[in-house]
Design brief:
The complex is a heterodimer of chains A (227) and B (305). Chain A is of the alpha/beta class and 227 residues long. Chain A has helices at residues 41-48, 71-80, 96-106, 111-124, 140-152, 170-185, 197-202; strands at 2-11, 15-25, 30-34, 56-61, 64-65, 81-85, 158-162, 189-194, 206-211, 214-219. Classes of the chains: A alpha/beta (227), B alpha+beta (305).
Chain lengths: 227, 305
């Protein structure tokens, strides 16, 4: 589904974030990308999401080369591959409802459709009683759920999670992981970047280990013990 | 078509939200627009003042043609007719010797010596002459050249142009310099307005950078992201302009009787009333155009989508 082929990313002036990385993520997989800070985890996710372009190499999504695509295709891609972040990226001064409305407004849906779909996704993630609250008043776990709900409104095929539990307490972390696991069971591909060893050990799933921009290990479920 | 109207509606309502929710930004933007439009109004009045001053000075300058003894009134009237049709000439008045004598008597009332001398005169020593008023002071040298080369040159005793030449030339040079100064001021004001508008908008949009980035990450189209900001700048431009117009009207109303005391034909109040729609169209048009173009440029250059 997602293929990175000999990808190198160099940030100016001459910072090598990734060097000659190659791997494939199959549809429906739950993949953990782990490594220390600065190992290149976020860079991989940003490359897949087309936030940045590789310096060398190619990236494919469903056999379609996304290294050089038009702005329109890029927008379409971001509706299929959504990202959740450690810092949530919510409009803090807006209510949860307004935040959740955004993807549907982008799709040009009517007010009625928006209200219906927002309520559905809010119920699914158990945040329906928070809809009229401003995002800035929510806890970290609630914010991450809103972020996830916002992405789910696009019916995504892939969720890129960039250290989504980095700012959360253990209980909220567990809750978010459970949601992601259930979404994965529904068939959504999850690419989860983290450096949290508890998460890695609790999720018996494929792990890609990055170190200083290099892919050092790509292990299948259950066959690794890194911490 | 439906989605286009939906986009417009959504963008307008979003721009209204930015206007109301981002209070401090809106305040700064409104303040900038008020400042810029007051500066533009000021530039227009400076321009109008320089024009009024020029006209006032020109009206105070005239050009008299005195004729040699023996020149008949018919001949003088013929020259008057020719000069009347001369390009740029506004008026050509014939002052007969009787009129000239009456005028002199009137003007000498405050001087008893001249008044007494005039009463002792047995005949009128004055002659008929023409007073020419042109649209601008640059016409006078041309009339002078024309007359001296014409077949009537032999009839002409002297032209007051040569007496007033220095004053006329100084006035021409003054009005020309004034024009350059005023034009420079207007250009500076326009550049300053553009600069200040651009930077205020840049700061405004920069403070909303996060919102723009989130929309980009969500795969929103360029128009979906940009239009609310463009509408927002349109909104505060119009509202800011209305405020500034109120201030201008108040100022004009309060100083209505003051300005004509400086130059009799200078009345910003009447000038504004006579050109109300044109001036508003010009200033508001400039502000909206500057803001919209700046918004578009800032979003295009600094917030690459």
């Amino acid at each position: 589904m997602i293929v990175l082929k000999n990808v190198t990313k160099v940030f100016p002036p001459n910072v090598v974030a990734l060097e000659n990385i190659s791997f494939e993520i199959k549809s429906g997989e739950f993949v953990l990308i782990i490594g220390r800070s600065g190992a290149g985890k976020s860079t991989v996710l940003r490359l897949i999401n087309k936030e940045i372009d590789p310096t060398k190499g190619e990236i494919f999504y469903k056999n379609f080369k996304i290294t050089k695509i038009s702005s329109k295709k890029k927008r379409e891609l971001r509706r299929k591959i959504i990202t959740i972040f450690q810092d949530f990226k919510l409009l803090n001064k807006k209510t949860v409802f307004e935040n959740l409305s955004l993807p549907l407004e982008i799709l040009g849906k009517s007010r009625k459709e928006i209200e219906k779909e927002v309520l559905n996704v809010a119920q699914r993630l158990k945040i329906e009683n928070k809809l009229n609250q401003k995002a800035e008043t929510l806890s970290g776990g609630e914010k991450q759920k809103v972020c996830l709900a916002r992405g789910l409104l696009y019916n995504p095929e892939v969720i890129l999670a960039d250290e989504p539990t980095g700012n959360l307490d253990p209980l909220s972390t567990h809750e978010i992981l459970e949601i992601l696991k259930s979404l994965n069971k529904e068939g959504i591909t999850i690419v989860f970047a983290t450096h949290n060893k508890e998460i890695v050990n609790s999720l018996k799933t494929r792990v890609i280990i990055l170190d200083n921009g290099h892919l050092v290990r790509d292990e299948n479920p259950g066959s690794y013990s890194i911490f | 078509m439906r989605s286009f109207f939906y986009l417009l509606k959504r963008s307008f309502s979003n721009s209204l939200n930015i206007f109301l929710e981002e209070g401090s930004l809106t305040f700064i933007n409104l303040f900038t627009i008020i400042l810029v439009s007051l500066t533009l109004w000021g530039a227009i009045y400076i321009f109008y003042f320089s024009e009024s001053l020029k006209i006032y000075l020109q009206n105070r300058l005239d050009f008299s043609i005195y004729f040699k003894e023996g020149t008949s009134r018919e001949e003088i009237e013929k020259i008057q007719k020719i000069l009347y049709n001369f390009p740029g000439v506004k008026e050509v008045d014939l002052i007969t010797q009787e009129m000239a004598f009456e005028k002199l008597k009137k003007e000498s009332k405050t001087n008893p010596i001249i008044e007494r001398a005039l009463t002792e005169l047995k005949s009128n020593p004055l002659v008929d002459y023409l007073i020419v008023k042109a649209e601008n002071s640059e016409i006078y040298p041309k009339i002078s050249d024309y007359l001296l080369k014409s077949p009537y040159s032999g009839k002409i005793d002297y032209l007051s142009y040569f007496e007033n030449r220095k004053i006329i030339e100084r006035a021409i040079s003054f009005t020309n310099n004034l024009k350059i100064i005023v034009l420079s001021i207007v250009i500076l004001v326009i550049l300053f307005s553009f600069f200040i508008t651009f930077n205020t908008l840049y700061i405004s949009f920069y403070s909303l950078k996060e919102e723009i980035e989130i929309l980009q990450l969500l795969g929103a189209s360029n128009s979906f992201i940009r239009l609310p900001f463009i509408f927002y700048s349109f909104l505060f431009s119009v509202i800011g302009y209305i405020f500034s117009l109120g201030l201008v009207v108040l100022f004009l109303e309060k100083t209505k009787s003051f300005w004509p005391l400086i130059i009799p034909n200078f009345s910003p109040y009447h000038f504004t009333l006579e050109n109300f729609f044109y001036l508003n169209f010009l200033i508001l048009g400039f502000i909206i155009l500057t803001n919209t173009l700046s918004s578009f440029f800032i979003l295009q250059k600094y917030f690459k989508l």
